[in-house]
Amino acid sequence: MLLQVILLVFLGCAIADDPSHDGWKQITQGLPVCVEPRDDGYGHLNYYGKSKLVAALKLKYESGVIRCTTNEAYDSRWGCASKRNTLNIIVTDDTDQVIFPQAEFSSGMWYSMPFVDHLYTDELVFTDFAHPFYLIEGERIRFWYGEDLTGYYETDNQGQVCFHVLARFI
User: In the chain, at which residue ranges do the beta strands (DSSP E only) sit?
Assistant: First the structure.
């Protein structure tokens, strides 16, 4: 009995110290998702966990840059430096219904977020705890560059950005 109590305390401490138990669960399997900003260059992941409600998604930057022009001075992790609203990564279901962000877009699906720098921010976090979506086992989530999704001036877009995807289930 004493051994069982010690084992439970040890396992509880190990779980509490494990940073993967901070409420986020990585749902990319191995390789990151990569997005190219033109020619239907969306990235995707197939979800293989249990069907659950999702209140938030976190995109954790891995590598690369994208931009809305041929000029490298406009490189960005999440959009393009030449725009006032500099973010352009869109999350959709497999039929391209927008899941995140829940925002008012300018032309080409441009948006901004508080405290997010398009070039230096390592994580892009989308939340909607009031209206979670149900992620079904086996479903595909797509990640688009907004101009590519809408076909809005995408011909000069360049680059590729890769990131891991984490979910906050409720």
Answer: 25-26, 33-35, 43-46, 52-67, 89-92, 98-100, 123-127, 133-135, 140-145, 158-169
56 neighbors 125 (Cβ within 8 angstroms): yes
Which pairs count as long-range contacts for 151-154, CB under 8 Å and 24+ apart, including other chains? Answer: 152/107, 152/108, 152/109, 153/68, 153/108, 154/37, 154/38, 154/39
pTM of the model: 0.85
Stated as kind and residue range, the H or E segment containing 11 is helix 2-17
Please determine, looking at this structure, whether the domain spanning 23-169 carries the CATH number 2.60.120.
Answer: yes
Q: How confident is the model at residue 108 (pLDDT cuts 50, 70, 90)?
A: confident
